From TrEMBL:
Ranges of Polar residues composition bias in the record: 130-139
Top-level lineage group: Bacteria
UniProt protein name: HSP20 family protein
Annotated region described as Disordered, given as residue ranges: 124-162
A Pfam family the protein falls into: HSP20
Similarity section: Belongs to the small heat shock protein (HSP20) family.
Extent of Low complexity compositional bias: 148-162
Gene3D superfamilies on file: 2.60.40.790
CDD domains reported for this sequence: ACD_sHsps-like (cd06464)
SHSP domain sequence ranges: 26-137
Length: 162
């Protein structure tokens, strides 16, 4: 595993939060679960590790090009038990992601399986590649693929002028 200074800082912050009662300035500490983000032709896929979290304790909000995931894992020591060491993270887990406008946050799908939350955010219809047939002298020529992200409007304007 490669050295990741940001992960090391995040883990150190979490340890400090736990060491000082799990609160920062009188508020419960918010822990950031690790995430993998992948992109393909269909859209984005975000995978978060939320071990020990129940599906009912997960809240996902998508608004204004922002995707927020919150989950809560509570610590239950139980009556008559003494804790000698508590190293696992408890409390509220939270991650917020800025999502580019080319993705459609109204169609987010979420799956939770064995402590792993997978979110799929499809590309918006306007950002999808599509085939456009160009007419020349009243005849259709070979179809051309236009990518909305990479100047599709510019290509369409050139086709109208030519």
């Amino acid at each position: 595993m490669r050295f990741d200074p940001f992960r090391e800082i995040e883990e150190l912050t979490q340890r400090m939060d736990r060491a000082f009662g799990g609160s920062v300035n009188g508020q419960l500490a918010r822990l950031a679960p690790p995430v993998d983000v992948h992109e393909d032709e269909q859209g984005l896929e975000l995978t978060l590790d939320l071990p020990g979290v129940q599906p009912d304790d997960i809240q996902i909000e998508a608004e204004n090009q922002t995707l927020t995931v919150q989950a809560k894992r509570t610590y239950n020591r139980g009556e008559g038990r003494t804790a000698h060491r508590v190293e696992r993270a408890y409390g509220t887990f939270s991650r917020t992601f800025s999502v580019p406008a080319k993705y459609d946050l109204t169609k987010v799908e979420a799956d939770f399986d064995h402590g792993t939350l997978t979110l799929r955010v499809p590309r918006s219809e306007a950002a999808q590649k599509r085939t456009v047939q160009v007419r020349s002298g009243g005849q259709l020529s070979a179809p051309k693929t236009v990518d909305a992200e990479q100047g599709g409007t510019q290509q369409a304007e050139q086709a109208q002028q030519g």
